[in-house]
Amino acid sequence: IQFEPHSEVILEEGLKEYSVARVRVGEILTGKVITVNEKELAVNVGYRSDGIVPAAELPDESTANYKQGDDIEVMVIRTDDGDGNLLLSVIRTYAIVVWDELDALLQSQNNFVVDVKEVVKGGVIARYKGARIFVPASQVAAGYVADLSEFVGKKLEVRMVEVDKAKHRAVASAKAISAEKVKAARKEALAALRAGQIINGKVVRLESFGAFVDLGGCDGLLHISNMSWKRLKHPSEMLKVGDLVKVEVTKIDLEKENISLRLTDIPENPWDNINSKYKVGEVYKGKVARLQNFGAFINLEADVDGLCHVSEIAAERVELPSDVLKVGDEVEVKVLAVDKAEKRISLSIKAVNAVAAAAETSAPTDSEVKEDAAEAVELGIKPTTLADVFKDYFKK
């Protein structure tokens, strides 16, 4: 072999370059993506040949998140894949490097995003750069979550709670972040509301004192007294969870972040003009709605019942209303008293019957008088007149 002048220097520089590029199995290198397809990435790590990262050695086993020119950290699996290329892995790099990163995230308490993979006993398993992270059920969201499977396949923003690098154990939480987002959204929604505003909402929770309505970013309280003019024992008499309602904002307390609501479609209260519809002494038709030992409730119109006390059912003594009446009976009643404030009407069936009975025994009709006169003539009885009564007085 004949060397040209200075050829020893050129060969020495080439050997140096080759020695610098030498790699070992298990070594972590930084490279640059040069090509991407569905099956693999080609990566330049400064070696004499390119490195290949199969899709199976990528997070999610997908090349979709990579593009030409991306910097990437890889681990050498083999120095020759059979075609003279380096066989590289990303997820195996993560398995080493990621635990240092997770430890740093624990110290900084910065938020990061994980991919939820499956539901397990007590919570969900998520992945972050190949690392397995457990999120307890109580820490998945700000409130109670009935079905954790709704989070599978989704991204979740979390903070580290615990990291054990030696055991490769990590626990994270999304609860605080979720609560902060809910609070921020609530403040923004509160700032946009005004008293008197009409808004559509959705019933999300029922309590004995009222219903909580989601107004889109914040909840308002629809008190039981603002659902109906009638007295309700429980909001479930009017609403159920999931109902869409139209409400009016009656009051906003920005300091306490409270919103008071009122239903806008409350039916008209028939008691508002009860005194003009039912007059004391007048007779009205009604229907027996229910019976109690002390009397019968008579329905006069929708949502308006009056009480006919047992003593006002009949002229004779009545032991029980059910002895005389049954539910559904149509009756005529006389109004004895009206109390608008207490929503009470006192009624009497006896008074109506007494009037009818008196009418039957009242003065005879003209036809009856004529019949009586004709009968008297036939019997030879002379009718008595006023002249007959006062004839002696007239003579004087």
Could you please describe the fold and organization of this structure?
The strands form four sheets. A five-stranded mixed barrel has the order 1-2-3-5-4. A five-stranded antiparallel beta sheet has the order 8-7-6-9-10. It has a five-stranded mixed barrel with strand order 11-12-13-15-14. Helices cover 22% and strands 35% of the residues. The model is unreliable at 6-20 (pLDDT under 50). The chain has helices at 7-20, 91-108, 175-192, 274-277, 350-360, 366-379, 386-395; strands at residues 28-36, 40-44, 51-54, 71-78, 86-89, 112-120, 123-128, 131-136, 155-164, 169-173, 198-207, 210-214, 219-223, 244-253, 258-263, 283-292, 295-301, 304-309, 330-339, 344-348. With 396 residues, the protein is of the alpha+beta class. It has seven helices and 20 strands. The protein is rod-shaped.
